[in-house]
Amino acid sequence: MTNPTAHPNLTVLVDGSSYLFRAYHAMPALTNSKGQPTGAIKGVINMIRRLAKDYPGARTIVVFDAKGKNFRHELYPEYKANRPPMPEDLACQIAPIHQIIEAMGLPLLIIPGVEADDVIGVLARQATAQQTDVIISTGDKDMAQLVSAHVKLVNTMTETVMDEAGVVEKFGVRPDQIIDYLALVGDSVDNIPGVPKCGPKTAVKWLQEYGSLDAVMANADNVGGKIGENLRAALPTLPLSYQLATIRCDVDLPQSLQDISHAPSDPQKLRALYEEYEFRSWIREVENMENAATSDADKGAPEGGQTADLSLDYQTILTQDHLEQWLNRLRQASLFAFDTETTSLNYMEAQIVGVSFALQPGEAAYVPLAHDYLDAPEQLDRPSVLAQLKPLLEDPALKKVGQNLKYDMNVLANYDITLRGIEHDTMVQSYVLNSTATRHDMDSLAETYLGRSTVHFEDIAGKGAKQLTFNQIAVETAAHYAAEDAEITLCLHQRLYPELARHSGLRRVYEEIDCPLVPVLSRIERTGTLVDAHLLGQQSQQLAERIHALEQEAYRVAGQEFNLSSPKQLQAIFFDKLGLPVLKKTPTGQPSTAEPVLQEMAEDYELPRLILEHRSLAKLKSTYTDKLPKLIHPGDGRIHTSYHQAVAATGRLSSSDPNLQNIPIRTEEGRRIRQAFVAPPGYKLIAADYSQIELRIMAHLSQDPGLLSAFSRNEDVHRATAAEVFEVDLDAVTAEQRRKAKAINFGLIYGMSAFGLAKQIHVERGEAQRYIDRYFERYPGVLDFMERIRAQAHQDGYVETVFGRRLYLPDINARNKMLQQ
Length: 821
What we know:
The protein is α/β, with parallel strands linked by helices. The protein contains 35 helices and 18 strands.
């Protein structure tokens, strides 16, 4: 979507109310240090800032719904009656959003008696009459009726643009048929009646056959079946549905489009608001604007009133002399930033296209080595440059900083270079500093901590199937992107590390655990895991046979063949044909066949049990026995996963491509898949696991005498708990009692309720509550610790591990109690 060209003849109409709710649900529930919710504020303002970047120079107007009822309620008092009241923690964010928009200098329209849709419709019609193109920024499907040759919809959250052809592609009808479509389908949220049971496919079919709502109504007698009866029953209310779904483009507004103008932004007010709600990167941005404005005032503003850019010296190294100058500077540096540009994210296949360095903020260099597009400029020889870099990169005394250096380390290993001297990694710094504050990619960190908008890879390479690889990108374009990567990384380190160093616990986690782990994980990844492809092939065939047998058995029980993966067909067989009880319904009122429901039904009925087993085996086959052999690297016969340090908020590693942490162990089939991971001749695989580690940590933290005593006597702690909770001698504890005690031990330290425990150990809720009460009577230190840690979390906004790793809890003081929980 990004387009640097100015758009002086474009009008951008922002549906603020649409984005308000979407931002509230899409953004994490952020709060500032005072506990004020800020997630929706950040989401909506981010969207408006994105529009300003995508459509510079356009006339932008933001429209929100006014409080209270509008003319549609007069037409139909039940209009929107089904909508729940606005959550308190969203309502309190509306005024700040309005204040920030006004401080940005943008016109803000809130017109009583009509909806934001109608205001946007009027302005879009006026703009079209003035031969001005219109972009409507919204996520509301109703707006599709406004699309024309001059009007397009943009969904800033999904980065999609919808023109006339896009409406047909998405809905199956033309923009001029959208109101007819909405009237037929109805809207349960807005309480527009429509035709009961008429879904999108039926509405499209009717409109394609008859052309309009009037024609559908005229031919209602020709529509058969139950849906025909519903259509005929709805004929009296369909005109009302049409009125309710119509965006009114003829309502009177206090101002016409030509009377609405932008005001100058108010940096002082913006900064005060950003400080109040603690949007740090935006504060720095405003400060940069103020500094640039002051500088311009001192020396005369540049032509056009534009503020001066940050002074950057990004160099492209194309000669040996230039390279040697930089190599000499790198050898003498106390720390330098380093980055590789490659052909692939798969470190085992990636080839180096170029390398970049930075020694100080604002200055960086890129060495292109393998750009091979037509007419690419002559570049230094890759083997020669890497040979010159090898002593620097392998010298542990030369300190390096990078962003996700594990990847660069893996790629350099393809060229027989062992990266040493990894002093800092900005991705790891951000993660240790606050694992939940932001994403930890460089672009997000630059925005959050430096207030700088970076060039994204998609900006220079495109997206999707036509995306270029880095070697296909023009050197002059690639050079700025690559040099910026290194320079931004250095700036991030200078911003993040001092903040880390202020907290001894966080600094210890970073310097003694997470940063030293980078080369360890690199070595594990490159070593890979040996897999017996032949054994996986055998297992895949056996699974296929078992899956087929389960299908045949399911057909026998159902009395017919059907698609075991089709919820609609399952509903028909379960509830219409076999008369099984409906345990839960979907949001649309249909009987649910979701997995938790099937698990409950499987306890009493054979067909749900067969369906579950079929699903489980089909997933094992597609995810593991079929897929894993395809991921074996041809060079060494091993599978190479990627371990991620900066994903799980709690400090755990995650694994992807493939996920080797998720191979099941509780079923016989899953255990057989694990058997395909083998050791080479002369080696053995060893499995090691902590014994009841969570409970040992709880005993240490809580200092509960009962738990400490059980561990000090080397007792089976689950058996000890069973003896306490069920009030029996240790020797008399049964296997079933031990199983329940294990569920109690692990469940309660993670806050399980009586309802959850009852469900897990299959007892009544009252009995489960008695177990919980007795547990805490026997282990009062555990209860005391849990209450203390909750109080501390409310006070500090975070909790800490024994080593000092922090988990920030942005919702711990949210007004919404469900978010707190």
